[in-house]
Amino acid sequence: MSELPICVACGMQYAEPRSDCPICEDERQYVPPAGQQWTDLNTVRASGTYTARIEEQGPGLVGVGSTPNFAIGERALLVKAESGNFLWDCAGFIDDDLVAKVRELGGITGIAISHPHYYTTMVEWAHTFDVPVYLHEGDQQWIGRPDPALKLWSGATLDVAPDLRLINLGVHFAGGTVLHWPGGENGRGAVLSGDILQVIPDRRFVGMMYSYPNLIPERPEIVRRAAEMLEPYEFEAIYGAWWDAIIRTDGHEAVQRSAKRYLAQVG
């Protein structure tokens, strides 16, 4: 359904035309000063502006996105797990070339998305590869294009494969989720975080915000809970939402020291 409307600012694809984008009108995003604008995949592809971008991001992790960045600009990560390839988060741009490149890597067995800002064209991806998309039910209200391929889950964790676990930290959005891959970083463990745990310039720390663009802090009890939930897990690396936004070492302690610093600042 490549003619369905897509918000230019956030990349959310909706099931039918509308005048507003609830994602952008929420205080965790924004409507650009020029106002709400719309496009669709047919128009984006025909423009020739965007091309597929596939780059290794770490051991067994391949970034999937476009040049230039589309909408918010996140890149997805193809996880080469022992259980099979799995796609973490969703790149809003998708065309035949990008699909062919992902198929050359072995395709994907499923998709999971950290939070609604990256839902974008998830149904297009699900239909193209005939796979489910796992979303936490806490964010159900933000789905722009309902579809049977979308699988809502509840609770704190979900094992989408024997070696891949989703963990609902609740940071940024109620359904804000990270992916723990024990086999990542050559067996030292990795967390794929979107911007639920934001990889910031000082790689000794991560950010945890309610709204990143509008600089609204996350609630202290949510930050405390997130750190407590991740404490039992072993992981060396953290992979954020952006190209090369990676903490290569000491990821577990980066989360713990970040929460401690945050809670000290907010009292």
Automatic annotation (TrEMBL):
Residues 73-242 form the Metallo-beta-lactamase domain. This is Beta-lactamase-like protein. Gene3D superfamilies: Ribonuclease Z/Hydroxyacylglutathione hydrolase-like (3.60.15.10). InterPro entries: Metallo-B-lactamas, RibonucZ/Hydroxyglut_hydro. PANTHER family: METALLO-BETA-LACTAMASE FAMILY PROTEIN (AFU_ORTHOLOGUE AFUA_5G12770) (PTHR36839). It comes from Amycolatopsis azurea DSM 43854.
